[in-house]
Design brief:
Blueprint: E1 2-9, E2 18-21, H1 22-25, E3 30-35, H2 41-53, H3 60-63, E4 78-85, E5 88-95, E6 98-101, E7 108-111, E8 114-119, H4 130-141, H5 145-151, E9 153-155, H6 156-164, H7 167-178, H8 181-219, H9 229-289, H10 291-340, H11 345-350, H12 359-376, H13 379-385, H14 387-496, H15 498-503, H16 533-570, H17 576-598, H18 600-652, H19 657-704, H20 709-715, H21 719-744, H22 746-751, H23 759-797, H24 807-821, H25 833-856, E10 861-866, E11 879-884, E12 889-892, H26 898-919, E13 927-931, H27 939-952, E14 958-962, H28 966-971, E15 975-979, E16 986-990
Parallel strand pairs: 3-14, 3-15, 9-13, 13-14
Antiparallel strand pairs: 1-2, 1-4, 4-5, 5-8, 6-7, 10-11, 11-12, 15-16
Helix pairs in contact: 6-26, 7-25, 8-23, 8-24, 9-21, 9-23, 10-19, 10-20, 10-21, 12-19, 13-18, 13-19, 14-16, 14-17, 14-18, 25-26
Length: 998
C-alpha cells in the first residue's frame, strides 16, 4: 500500500481545507511530521485511518468528535485519500456522522456518515455504500482495521505497554491482530456445551422435586412427603370443578354488569336531554315575554329607515316657509308705507293680493308719473329724500355684521374644544383596542402560569416517589452485593473441596478422571463444611434474582428522574408561590381588560358623532365668514354714499323748503311704490317655492306612510340607536332559533315530559355490578390458571425420573475436555488452546523483532519467548523477556532503561508489522508511520535508530516519523509541519519541491 495524497476539511483541529502530498514528502523515503502539542499531528494519521476504515485508532474513536470545533456553521467534515493498494489506484472520500444547526427552527440535527470510492485507474465500479467500501478496502488491503493500526500506524507508547503488559493484556492485543476467533469459538463452544450439560444434569436431578413442589404451590396445598399420582389427580379434579363453578358465576355477574352499564348510560343520556329541553323552554318563555319589546324595536328601525328621506325635504320646506313669511311681511310693510303717502294712498287701495292682471300696469303707470315729476326736481333733493333709507341700511348692515361675528365666535369656541373631546375619545378607543389585543396574550400567559403551577404540584409527588425509589434501589443493591459475595465465597470453598467432590464418585476398578489410575488408596474426604454444586447453583439463582430486582428498581428510579426533569423544565424556573401569584394576577388583569374591550363600540360611535358635528360647524363658520365680509363691504359702501350726500346737501341747500318737501313726498311715494313692486315679485316667487316644497313633501309623506312631518321627525333615530336595536333583534332571533331547534329535537320531545332518572342510584348499582363481575373474573382467571398449570405438571410428574441417569456419563466427559482446552484441570502449563496458538504467533514476532533489536542495541539485546507456567494458577505461554549478550542473563523487560525500552518497543512494533503483513498475504506496505518515543534517545542511540529507519525505506518504502524532538528536524529534511492557531490548525510542507501551506 502506498499513499499519494490526503485532503481534509472541517476535520479535527483543521477548520479550513488542509492537503498533504505524500508523493512529494516521500521522495527521499523518509519524512518528519511535527508540530506543537495539541496542534493535530495525530489527526493526520487519524484522517488516513478514517478514510480507509471509517473510524480512528484507540480511545479517540469513542468520542466520535471528528467535526472541527473551529468549523463554520453548516460545514461538512470530510477526508479524501488517494492511494495505491494491491496495484490498484483508488480515491476514497468519507464524511463522519455529525451534528449541524437546523435550517428551520432552533437546535441541532444529526447528519449520517457518507462516503464514496472511485477507482482512479478504472479497474472497478465506483461505490457509494459504506459497507461495500469497507469490505473492498479490507479485502484488497488484506488486513483488518486493528491490524492496520498496529502495522502501518506504529504507536510506540502502546508497544511499550505491550512489552511490560501482563499475559492477559498481551493476549487481548494478539487476538485482535492474528484473528484467533475460531479458537475462541471452539473454547466457547466446549465451555457452553459443558455448562449446558451440567445445567441439564442439575435440572433433571431436581425435576421430580421441583414438579411436586410446583404442583403443591399451584394448588395452594402443603407438599406431602411422598407425593403420588392420586394426590396430583385429586388436586386436578378439584381445580376442574372450581373452573366450572367460576365460569357459571362469571357469566351471571357479567350479564348483570352489562345490564347496569346500559341502564346507567341510558339514564345519563336522558338526564342530558332533560337539561337541554328545560333550558330551551326557559329561553323561549323569556323571548315570548320580551316579544312586545322586540316588535317595538323592529317597528322603530323600520320607521327610522322610512323617515330618513323626509328629513332633507322637510328642512327645505321649513326654509321656504320662513322665506315666504319674510317676503309677505316685507310686502305688507311696503304696502302700508305706500298707503301712508299722500300720493300713494289711492294707489294702495287700488292694488289687490293676490295680484290682479291690471296691477302691474297700474303700478308702472304711477311710477312713471311720479318719476317724471320728480325728475323735474333737482337731483339733489331726490337723493336727500333717500337719506333715511340709507341710514337704516347702514344700521341694519352693522347689526347683521355684529350678530354674524358673535355666531362665528361661538362656532370657533365649539371647534376649539372639538379636538380635545375627540382626542379624549380616541384615547379611550386606543385603550379599548389595546385591551382587545391584550386578551390573547393574557390567555397564553395564563396557560403558561397554570402549567408551571401544575408542574410544581406534580414535582412534589415525584420528589416523594424518587426518595422512595432511591431507598429501594439502595436496599436492592445491598442485597445484590451480599448475594454476589455469597456466590463468590461458595465458589471458592467448592473449588477448594473439588478433590473431595471428585473422589466421592470413585469406585474400585474404575479409572480416575484426573490421573487415570484404577486404584484409589487415599481418596480425599469430604469436609463437614463442603459446598455442594447445588448450593452454588442456588446461590447463583438467588444472586440473579437480586440483580433482576436491583435492575428493575434502577429503571424505575431512572424513569422517575426523567419525569422530574421534564416537569422541572415545565416550571419555567419559577417557584410554586410565584406561579400561583402569577395565575391570580393574570386572572385579575383579564377581567379588567375584558371590561375595557367591551367599551370599544360605544367609543367608536361617539367619535363618529363628534366628527359629524365638527364638519357641520366648519361649514357654518365658512358661510358666516362669507356673510360678514359681504355685510362689511355693504356697510362701507353705504357710509360712503351717506357721506357724499351730506356733503353735497350742506353745500347745495339754499332754503327751498317747498320743493324739498315735494320731492320728499314724491320720493317717498316712488320709494314706497318701488318697494311694493319688488316685494310683490319676491313674495310671488316665495309662494311658488312654498307650493312646490309642499307638493314634494306631501308626495314623500304619502310614499313613506307618515301622516305628518312631525310624525316622520319623531320616528328618526341616530345610527348608534339603529345599531343597538338591530343587535337586540338579531340576538333574540338567534336564541329563538337555537332554542326552538332543541325543543323540536325528537329525542328531547320524547323525554321532556318524563321523570328525571336517579343517576346516583344507577351509578351505585353499576359500580356494585362491575365489582361483582371483576371479582368473578378474578376467581375464574385464578381457577383456569390453576387448572391449566396443573394439567402439564401432572403429566410431567411421572416422566421426569426416566431421563436422569444417561446424562451423568456424558457430563463428566464434557467437563474434563472443557477444562483441558481452557488451561485448567489436567493442563499442567495452564495454557488454553487460544493461548497456545497465540504463543506460536508470538514466537514468530519475537524472532523478527530480535533481528531489529540486535541492530539498534549494537548486538547486545535480543528477545526471548517464555512459556513457563505462571504462579498462582495464572495462564502462561505469552511471556517476553530480554537476553543480555554482555552478561548472558535473561531478565524481565521492565528492567530496561528508557532508551532501551524505546529500542525494544520499536523493534517489537516492526517485528509485529512484518509478521502481520506476512499473515495477511505478504502484501508490501509502501507507507508506514512511527509515532513518538525518540525523545528518550541519546545521540548514539538515535544514530542506530536512524540506521534502522534507513533500512526500512529500502525498496521504495516511505517512512513517516511523528515527533516533536528538535534534533529530528535537523536529521530529516522533508517535513510536514502542523501549525496551531486560534482559528484552527494548518499544514506546511517543508524541504520538498511542493512547499506550501494547506
Amino acid at each position: 500500500m502506498k499513499l499519494h495524497s490526503l485532503q481534509m476539511h472541517a476535520f479535527g483541529p483543521f477548520a479550513a481545507d488542509a492537503e498533504v502530498d505524500f508523493d512529494a514528502l516521500g521522495v527521499d523515503g523518509l519524512f518528519l511530521l511535527h508540530g506543537q502539542t495539541g496542534a493535530g499531528k495525530t489527526t493526520v494519521l487519524d484522517a488516513v485511518a478514517f478514510a480507509l476504515f471509517g473510524r480512528v485508532p484507540g480511545a479517540r474513536d469513542d468520542g466520535r468528535r471528528l467535526l472541527s470545533d473551529h468549523a463554520k456553521p453548516g460545514d461538512t467534515p470530510s477526508v479524501t485519500l488517494e492511494a495505491t493498494i494491491g496495484g490498484r489506484r483508488l480515491r476514497v472520500t468519507r464524511s463522519p456522522e455529525h451534528l449541524r444547526t437546523k435550517k428551520r427552527g432552533t437546535g441541532l440535527t444529526r447528519v449520517n456518515a457518507a462516503g464514496t470510492l472511485t477507482w482512479v485507474d478504472g479497474s472497478g465500479p465506483n461505490l457509494a455504500r459504506l459497507p461495500e467500501i469497507g469490505e473492498v478496502i479490507t479485502r484488497i488491503l488484506g488486513m483488518s482495521a486493528d491490524q492496520f493500526f498496529q502495522v502501518v500506524l506504529l504507536p510506540q507508547g502502546e508497544f511499550a505497554r505491550f512489552l511490560r503488559a501482563s499475559t492477559d493484556d498481551r493476549e487481548r492485543l494478539l487476538e485482535r491482530l492474528f484473528e484467533t476467533e475460531r479458537f475462541n469459538d471452539l473454547e466457547g463452544w466446549l465451555r457452553e456445551r459443558a455448562r449446558t450439560s451440567r445445567t441439564e444434569l442439575e435440572d433433571k436431578g431436581q425435576a421430580v422435586d421441583r414438579l411436586a413442589g410446583q404442583i403443591a404451590v399451584v394448588a395452594d396445598v402443603p407438599q406431602p412427603v411422598e407425593p403420588d399420582f392420586d394426590w396430583a389427580q385429586d388436586l386436578l379434579d378439584s381445580a376442574r370443578a372450581e373452573v366450572v363453578a367460576a365460569t357459571e358465576s362469571l357469566t351471571t355477574t357479567r350479564d348483570a354488569s352489562r345490564t347496569a352499564d346500559r341502564a346507567h348510560a341510558d339514564a345519563r343520556h336522558a338526564h342530558e336531554l332533560h337539561r337541554r329541553g328545560r333550558t330551551a323552554q326557559a329561553q323561549l318563555a323569556a323571548l315570548d315575554a320580551e316579544r312586545a319589546t322586540i316588535a317595538s324595536a323592529v317597528a322603530m328601525i323600520d320607521a327610522a329607515r322610512r323617515a330618513e328621506p323626509v328629513r332633507a325635504v322637510a328642512a327645505e320646506h321649513d326654509r321656504a316657509q320662513r322665506e315666504c313669511a319674510r317676503a309677505t311681511s316685507a310686502r305688507e310693510q311696503a304696502h302700508d308705507r305706500l298707503a301712508a303717502t299722500a300720493d300713494g294712498a289711492a294707489l294702495a287701495r287700488a292694488l289687490s293680493w293676490p295680484a290682479a292682471p291690471a296691477d302691474r300696469s297700474t303700478v308702472e303707470g304711477a311710477m312713471e308719473r311720479w318719476t317724471t315729476e320728480s325728475g323735474r326736481l333737482e337731483p339733489l333733493e331726490k337723493r336727500v329724500r333717500d337719506r333715511p333709507d340709507l341710514l337704516r341700511a347702514i344700521d341694519d348692515t352693522s347689526t347683521a355684521g355684529a350678530h354674524a361675528a358673535e355666531q362665528i365666535a361661538s362656532v370657533d369656541e365649539a371647534l376649539e374644544s372639538a379636538p380635545r373631546r375627540r382626542a379624549e375619545s380616541e384615547k379611550a378607543l386606543a385603550a379599548a383596542v389595546a385591551a382587545s389585543a391584550r386578551l390573547p396574550q393574557l390567555r397564553t400567559e395564563a396557560e403558561a402560569a397554570e402549567v408551571a403551577r401544575t408542574a410544581h404540584a406534580r414535582l412534589e409527588r415525584l420528589d416523594a416517589e424518587a426518595e422512595r425509589a432511591r431507598t429501594q434501589v439502595a436496599s436492592f443493591r445491598d442485597r445484590h452485593q451480599l448475594a454476589r459475595e455469597r456466590v463468590l465465597d461458595l465458589r471458592e470453598r467448592r473449588i477448594a473441596g473439588m478433590a473431595a467432590e471428585l473422589s466421592a464418585g470413585l469406585r474400585d476398578g474404575d479409572p480416575c478422571a484426573v490421573c487415570g489410575a484404577t486404584e484409589h488408596p487415599a481418596p480425599a474426604v469430604t469436609a463437614a463444611e463442603h459446598v455442594r454444586e447445588q448450593d452454588e447453583a442456588d446461590a447463583r439463582a438467588e444472586e440473579k434474582a437480586c440483580e433482576s430486582d436491583r435492575t428493575g428498581a434502577e429503571r424505575a428510579l431512572a424513569a422517575i428522574e426523567t419525569d422530574r426533569a421534564l416537569w422541572r423544565e415545565r416550571t419555567g424556573g419559577v417557584t410554586c408561590d410565584e406561579a400561583t401569584a402569577e395565575v391570580d394576577r393574570i386572572a385579575a388583569e383579564r377581567r379588567r381588560v375584558s371590561q375595557e374591550a367591551h367599551a370599544e363600540a360605544l367609543v367608536r360611535a361617539n367619535i363618529a358623532a363628534l366628527d359629524a358635528d365638527t364638519e357641520r360647524l366648519r361649514t357654518d363658520r365658512t358661510a358666516l365668514q362669507t356673510r360678514v365680509a359681504e355685510l362689511r363691504e355693504r356697510e362701507a359702501h353705504l357710509r360712503r354714499q351717506l357721506a357724499e350726500l351730506d356733503a353735497e346737501t350742506a353745500s347745495a341747500t339754499d332754503g327751498t323748503i317747498t320743493v324739498a318737501s315735494r320731492r320728499r313726498a314724491l320720493a317717498d311715494a316712488c320709494a314706497a311704490l318701488a318697494a311694493v313692486r319688488e316685494t310683490r315679485s319676491v313674495c310671488a316667487a316665495a309662494d311658488d317655492r312654498v307650493r312646490d316644497c309642499t307638493a314634494r313633501l306631501d308626495d314623500l309623506l304619502g310614499e313613506t306612510g307618515f301622516e305628518s312631518v312631525t310624525a316622520a321627525r319623531a320616528a328618526l333615530l341616530t345610527p348608534s340607536e339603529v345599531a343597538r336595536f338591530e343587535k337586540q333583534v338579531r340576538q333574540a332571533s338567534d336564541i329563538r332559533a337555537a332554542a326552538q331547534a332543541t325543543v323540536d329535537d325528537p329525542e328531547v320531545a320524547r323525554v321532556i315530559g318524563t321523570e328525571v332518572p336517579d343517576l346516583d342510584r344507577l351509578e351505585v348499582e353499576r359500580v356494585e355490578a362491575t365489582a361483582a363481575a371483576t371479582s368473578a373474573a378474578t376467581r375464574h382467571a385464578g381457577a383456569v390458571a390453576t387448572a391449566a398449570k396443573l394439567e402439564p405438571l401432572c403429566a410431567d410428574f411421572w416422566s421426569a425420573v426416566s431421563v436422569l441417569a444417561p446424562a451423568v456419563a456424558r457430563d463428566a466427559e464434557l467437563q474434563g475436555l472443557a477444562e483441558l482446552v481452557a488451561g485448567r484441570g489436567q493442563n499442567s502449563r495452564r495454557m488454553s488452546l487460544r493461548s497456545y496458538v497465540l504463543a506460536a504467533r508470538l514466537e514468530e514476532v519475537i524472532l523478527a523483532a530480535s533481528f531489529r533489536l540486535r541492530q539498534m542495541s549494537s548486538g547486545r539485546y535480543e528477545f526471548a519467548h517464555s512459556d513457563a507456567a505462571a504462579s498462582r494458577g495464572r495462564r502462561s505461554g505469552l511471556g517476553i523477556e530480554i537476553r543480555d549478550e554482555y552478561t548472558g542473563a535473561v531478565r524481565p523487560a521492565n528492567t530496561l532503561s528508557g532508551g532501551e525500552t524505546f529500542f525494544a518497543s520499536l523493534a517489537l512494533a516492526l517485528g509485529l508489522a512484518d509478521v502481520v503483513s506476512a499473515e495477511s498475504g505478504g502484501r508490501v506496505l509502501d507507507t508506514i508511520f512511527i509515532d513518538e518515543g525518540f525523545g528518550t534517545l541519546d545521540p548514539e542511540a538515535l544514530d542506530l535508530v536512524m540506521g534502522v529507519l534507513d533500512e526500512l525505506r529500502s525498496g521504495g518504502r516511505v517512512v513517516g516519523v511523528v515527533s516533536h524532538v528538535d534534533e529530528m528536524r535537523a536529521r530529516i529534511p522533508a517535513q510536514l509541519r502542523v501549525i496551531r492557531s486560534e482559528g484552527g490548525s494548518a499544514l506546511q510542507m517543508i524541504g520538498t519541491s511542493a512547499e506550501r501551506f494547506g
